[in-house]
């Protein structure tokens, strides 16, 4: 395990030099335990502002666990314990005085299966701004809803049926509705946990196109099982294996000539 | 990162695809070597029937290149290869291209052998060509072995040695020009011989291309150094003897 940790520090030392932007999210020596199980071991990584960072790795490698540390979703699991430090804009998100609800407004999340509320399309988007008190009038709320749906590339498809149920949309539209819902509270970071695994190739392409547009304004972290998707949408890729980050680097380098043998074996489909 | 200890793919058909590409390329390499050797042999022994056989063999090289290209494209479409696998597929495409060009250059030598049939041919003039051809053949053989073994050090040696072929070509160029000036009856033959020598020199260049591809295949980065070059024939002037 020592060798792993060394390799990890080395590649990260080299990687921080060419992050390709200011670091928005910085994690240092993050450890996660589920009861006795040590799920994440000394994870350190920088994620650049307004860029897409992809986490890849086999099932159970810790990538989703780490993603959920970034908006403290793991707090909801009673046996889960997190140590180490994660900062967003130099602000420690595990600071005890921090309001977790505010944090989750700044760090939005999109899940594997689209999960719209059983409400109208309008209400799905308006819900967040309403509980956070972001709109003072109906007109302002209308504007937020339209703007969010436009940014999620869904507006043209739903503008004539905003009062229809959100669950009546197609899978791909539902996922874009969830992205609109996340955007509505003006987050800075959007976490995506396999956002396309339940979608067909066309819907997937639309989400990928959307991710590319969203990165102008947001810092995006995406967990994906699709190697090709990571290669297509991200600027940087981190490869997780057995709870550690094996290698982090520019996506084009990870997918053409990775430094670590384990990364190569995984992305080329050679893992035993 | 060498491929010799690479574990198999989970999808074994992927390994079969890559192996087939490698096998076809090995076959093509063997054929290219044979074409170069036989075309030069035909030139030195003025063997027109052999030259005709060389021209026929070139078709097999073209066919193999097509097969490799189709197979490589299909592999990219089906398997979406990345990292070392992607470099393997790209390398096979590039090397197949170089080998196809080598086949064409050998065929061109063979055509000249047929054109020279029955012409006045002082045998000593061909010696220089024999020398440069031997050196080039050794380079080609070496670089193909380096490919089979994914040995970038050997490939790099080939790459560095190409300067010798270039220098030989430049001195051969001067020598042949001198013969032409000595006796105008040499001109026809010498001009063909000069093209043959140029073809051989370019075969050497393709061998260095293959060496560069092997370097990229193994290391994942292109070879950025400037290659030592010794062909100065493009800027060589020879004065006609006065008086």
Automatic annotation (TrEMBL), chain A:
- What topology does the record note for this protein and the membrane? Peripheral membrane protein
Q: Which GO terms describe its cellular component?
A: plasma membrane
- MF term (GO), any: ATP hydrolysis activity
Mind telling me which Gene3D superfamilies this protein's record contains?
A: P-loop containing nucleotide triphosphate hydrolases (3.40.50.300)
Q: Where in the cell is it found?
A: Cell inner membrane
Has UniProt tagged this entry with the keyword Phosphoprotein? no
> Cell wall biogenesis/degradation as a keyword?
no
Domain ABC transporter, residue spans: 25-267
Q: Which GO terms describe its biological process?
A: phosphate ion transmembrane transport
Q: Look up the domain of life of the source.
A: Bacteria
- For this UniProt record, give its keywords in alphabetical order, as a comma-separated list: ATP-binding, Cell membrane, Membrane, Nucleotide-binding, Phosphate transport, Translocase, Transport
List the PROSITE patterns. Answer: ABC_TRANSPORTER_1, ABC_TRANSPORTER_2
NCBIfam families to which the protein is assigned, alphabetical: 3a0107s01c2
The similarity annotation says:
Belongs to the ABC transporter superfamily.
- General function of this protein: Part of the ABC transporter complex PstSACB involved in phosphate import. Responsible for energy coupling to the transport system.
What protein name applies here? Phosphate import ATP-binding protein PstB
Species, as recorded: Methylopila jiangsuensis
Gene this protein is translated from: pstB
UniProtKB/TrEMBL annotation, chain B:
Q: What is its main location?
A: cytoplasm
Q: What's a single GO CC term here?
A: cytoplasm
Output the GO biological process annotations, alphabetical, semicolon-separated: intracellular phosphate ion homeostasis; negative regulation of phosphate metabolic process; phosphate ion transport
Record flagged with keyword Cell division: no
User: Keywords on this record?
Assistant: Cytoplasm, Phosphate transport, Transport
Cell compartment(s), UniProt: Cytoplasm
InterPro entries tied to this protein: PhoU, PhoU-like_sf, PhoU_dom
Annotated PhoU domain residues: 25-113, 130-213
Q: Does the keyword Cytoplasm apply?
A: yes
Domain of life assignment: Bacteria
Q: What family does the entry list?
A: Belongs to the PhoU family.
Q: What does this protein do?
A: Plays a role in the regulation of phosphate uptake.
Complexes and interactors: Homodimer.
For this entry, the protein name equals Phosphate-specific transport system accessory protein PhoU
UniProt lists the gene as: phoU
């Amino acid at each position: 395990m020592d060798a792993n940790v060394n390799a990890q520090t080395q590649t990260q030392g080299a990687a921080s030099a060419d992050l390709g932007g200011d670091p928005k999210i910085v994690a240092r020596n993050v450890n996660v335990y589920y009861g006795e199980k040590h799920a994440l071991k000394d994870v350190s990584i920088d994620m650049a502002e307004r860029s897409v960072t992809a986490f890849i790795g086999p099932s159970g490698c810790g990538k989703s666990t780490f993603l959920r540390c970034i908006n403290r979703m793991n707090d909801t699991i009673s046996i889960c314990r997190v140590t180490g430090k994660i900062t967003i804009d130099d602000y420690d998100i595990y600071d005890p005085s921090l309001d977790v609800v505010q944090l989750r407004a700044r760090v939005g999340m999109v899940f594997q299966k689209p999960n719209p509320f059983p409400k109208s399309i309008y209400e799905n988007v308006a819900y967040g701004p309403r509980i956070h008190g972001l709109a003072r009038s109906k007109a302002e709320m209308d504007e937020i809803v339209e703007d969010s749906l436009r940014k999620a590339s869904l507006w043209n498809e739903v503008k004539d049926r905003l009062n229809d149920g959100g669950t009546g949309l197609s899978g791909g539209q539902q996922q874009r509705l969830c992205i609109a819902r996340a955007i509505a509270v003006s987050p800075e970071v959007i976490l995506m946990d396999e956002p396309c695994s339940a979608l067909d190739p066309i819907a997937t392409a639309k989400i990928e196109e959307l991710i590319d547009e969203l990165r102008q304004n947001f810092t995006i972290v995406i967990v994906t099982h699709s190697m090709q998707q990571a290669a297509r949408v991200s600027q940087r890729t981190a490869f997780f294996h057995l709870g550690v980050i094996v290698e982090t680097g520019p996506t084009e380098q990870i997918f053409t000539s990775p430094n670590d043998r384990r990364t190569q074996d995984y992305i080329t489909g050679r893992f035993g | 990162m060498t491929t010799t200890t690479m574990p198999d793919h989970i999808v074994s058909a992927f390994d079969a695809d890559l192996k087939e590409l490698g096998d076809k390329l090995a076959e093509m390499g063997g054929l290219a070597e044979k074409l170069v050797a036989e075309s030069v042999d035909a030139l030195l022994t003025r063997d027109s029937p052999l030259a005709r056989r060389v021209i026929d063999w070139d078709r097999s090289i073209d066919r193999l290149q097509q097969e490799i290209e189709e197979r490589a494209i299909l592999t990219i479409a089906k398997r979406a290869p990345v990292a070392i696998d992607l470099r393997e597929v790209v390398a096979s495409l590039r090397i197949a291209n170089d080998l196809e060009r080598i086949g064409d250059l050998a065929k061109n030598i063979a055509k000249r052998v047929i054109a020279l049939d029955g012409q006045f041919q002082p045998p000593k003039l061909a010696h220089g060509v024999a020398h440069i051809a031997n050196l080039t053949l050794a380079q080609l053989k070496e670089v193909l072995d380096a490919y089979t073994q994914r040995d970038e050090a050997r490939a790099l040696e080939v790459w560095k040695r190409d300067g010798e072929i270039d220098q030989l070509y430049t001195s051969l160029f001067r020598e042949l020009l001198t013969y032409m000036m000595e006796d105008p009856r040499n001109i026809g033959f010498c001009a063909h011989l000069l093209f043959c020598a140029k073809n051989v020199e370019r075969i050497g260049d393709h061998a260095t291309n293959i060496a560069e591809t092997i370097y990229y295949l193994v290391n994942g980065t292109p070879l950025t150094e400037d290659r030592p070059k010794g062909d100065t024939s493009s800027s060589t002037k020879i004065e006609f003897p006065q008086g």
